Amino acid sequence: MFSITINGRHHDVTVAPDTPLLWVLRDALGLSGTKFGCGIGQCGSCTVHVDGSPVRSCVTPVAAVAGQAVVTIEGLAEGLGGPVGEAVRQAWRTIDVPQCGYCQSGQIMAATALLRRTPLPSDDDIDTAMSGNLCRCGTYNRVRAAIHTAAASLKKGA
To answer: Residue 68's closest CA among 110, 116, 6?
Structure first.
């Protein structure tokens, strides 16, 4: 059994230590916002925050997050991303980033982590931070525009 904190709530889960966090989130806890994309940590659809850092939940064993705070896209929607998370979510709506939307929870989680580290990122900063998040629909230009929009709104509100 593992004790984990997901979106500010404590959970005891009985799974094998090497069970990917993604499947604990989706199957054991019913948090379906984190998506399965590739299963090898290459596409970014499964990105969550562990103690504030973006990680790929499809390749992160549940044993590795015991005692750490995990935030999913649902947690961001609940306000656990703070002003940065809300600015990113609002920018995504303003710019109308998604097409199919499948990768967007991972994109939003990665963008939120980027803006926490780098409040006014350059295009190169964005490209580097977002390079591991694949979008089958090719919304990369809108993703970049939304990150700049979120950064500007945070700077304006500071």
So the answer is: 6
